[in-house]
Design goal:
Layout lengths: L1 H9 L2 H30 L9 H10 L8 H22 L4 H20 L4 H32 L4 H5 L5 H4 L1 H14 L27 H10 L1
Helix pairs in contact: 2-4, 3-10, 4-5, 4-10, 5-6, 6-9
């Protein structure tokens, strides 16, 4: 861990942010492919290829741009920008509280995008997304405060270079954080706001009215 942190510290601020912007979508696509493959195997299916998430995004980018209103796409663009900004802050070793608030702001714009259309399915998905945000954000902030109490800093770089494993000093905080990750990652049964399994009562939930490039932007953001 210290070697990896030292490597990132040796890079310039702009270089670290650029590395994140280039690597994160690729790593996320691979992880999404592995997740879908494992899910299929557990259900007795062969499943899609590992490259399927990349195929999906490329296909969406080639589709016609159809929107219900301009406010819809405006919110999605801001959702994408603040998501990228949050990740860039993390790899730059910046203040972890600023990163958390930036990511929460990205989620707020995502919810507003759902409310900006008249679909009842989108509204229901947005309401469920708000409930999930309210349920996990306090624990995320508590985790950051706990790390500050041990390391004396909110800086990601200082926390990463701390000499002792934080899990030994914060076992309860770690357990709470792992618990809320299932909500944060929208894993079943906490996937009702934008479920990939198309639950009948909300169809695709918050993203029901999104298609083409806007939906591709949502997928890349996730």
């Amino acid at each position: 861990m210290n070697t990896l942190c030292s490597f990132f510290q040796s890079l310039g601020l702009a270089e670290r942010m650029l590395a994140f912007v280039l690597i994160a979508p690729l790593a996320g696509g691979v992880l999404a492919g592995i997740d879908r493959k494992l899910t299929a195997r557990l259900q007795g299916r062969f499943g899609p290829p590992l490259r399927q998430p990349f195929y999906d995004v490329l296909k969406l980018l080639q589709k016609e741009r159809i929107v219900v209103n301009k406010f819809q796409n405006f919110n999605i663009i801001l959702f994408f920008i603040f998501t990228v900004f949050s990740g860039a802050l993390f790899f730059a070793g910046a203040d972890i509280l600023l990163m958390i608030f930036s990511l929460a702001l990205a989620g707020t714009f995502f919810v507003l995008a759902g409310y900006s259309v008249s679909s009842p399915y989108s509204h229901l998905g947005a309401e469920r997304e708000i409930i999930q945000m309210v349920s996990y954000e306090p624990m995320v902030i508590l985790t950051a405060v706990g790390m500050y109490m041990v390391t004396g800093s909110f800086k990601v770089a200082d926390i990463a270079l701390y000499q002792k494993p934080l899990i030994l000093a914060l076992p309860g905080v770690f357990a709470g954080f792992v618990y809320i990750l299932t909500i944060k990652f929208r894993k079943s049964p906490f996937d009702l706001s934008i479920s990939h399994h198309a639950h009948q009562e909300i169809v695709r939930g918050l993203i029901t009215e999104f298609s083409g490039p806007a939906l591709a932007l949502i997928e890349v953001s996730h």
